[in-house]
Amino acid sequence: MHDAPRYDPLEASAFFADGRSARGLVANAVARGTLREDEHLYQGTIDGQLTDMFPMPVTAELMARGRERFNVFCSPCHGRTGQGNGMVVQRGFRAPPSFHQERLRSAPVGYYVNVETNGFGAMSDYSAQVPPEDRWAIAAYIRALQFSQRATVGDVPPDRRPELDRAPEAAPAAPEAR
């Protein structure tokens, strides 16, 4: 096997009638893992229209994943609260729009997935870095951020309202230096 016969790229060959050493791709073949038939999941659209429906249930786990992925991929530009004041912006780069402006608050959730997938304006696409399920998780978290900026006490379930009056727990004290 150490000296197995092989061809260099584009090297001529007498084995095939056309003189090439390599064969072309099979017509209409799709590489494994690249068939993205589910337009809803991969693009945030149904029949070409942006959708407001999630392709999976929105659970606490999905929201936690969305927060974690948002903080990794989105917060450098958009900031942790979605105001558009992330660290990149503080270093002088162009600011993205705030997720809290009315145009983006009223956009269908599929809009965010579509922008994450294809990019928009100065934002490049993140389809190679962020899997489609995580793009939906990020979109769900963006919706939660938007809701949090305009939530009222009436939006809090009655059984959770007593928690609002509790003082936040203090962080543990740092050990004293010797």
Question: In a nutshell, what does this entry contain?
Answer:
The chain has 178 residues and is an all-alpha fold.
Please tag this protein with its features:
single chain, 178 residues, mainly alpha, Cytochrome Bc1 Complex, Chain D, domain 2, two-stranded antiparallel ribbon, 7 helices
> If strands are numbered along the chain, what order do they take across the biggest sheet?
1-2
Low-confidence stretches: none
Briefly note the CATH topology name of one domain.
Answer: Cytochrome Bc1 Complex, Chain D, domain 2
Contiguous helical run count: 7
Write a structural description.
Helices cover 35% and strands 2% of the residues. It is built from seven helices and two strands. The protein has a domain at 59-150: Cytochrome Bc1 Complex, Chain D, domain 2 (Orthogonal Bundle), CATH 1.10.760.10. It has a two-stranded antiparallel ribbon with strand order 1-2. The mean pLDDT is 91. It has helices at 39-43, 60-78, 87-90, 102-105, 109-118, 132-148, 162-165, and strands spanning 45-46, 49-50. It starts with 38 loop residues before the first helix and ends in a 13-residue tail after the last helix. 17% of the residues are buried. Helix 2 (60-78) packs across helix 6 (132-148) and helix 5 crosses helix 6. With 178 residues, the protein is mainly α.
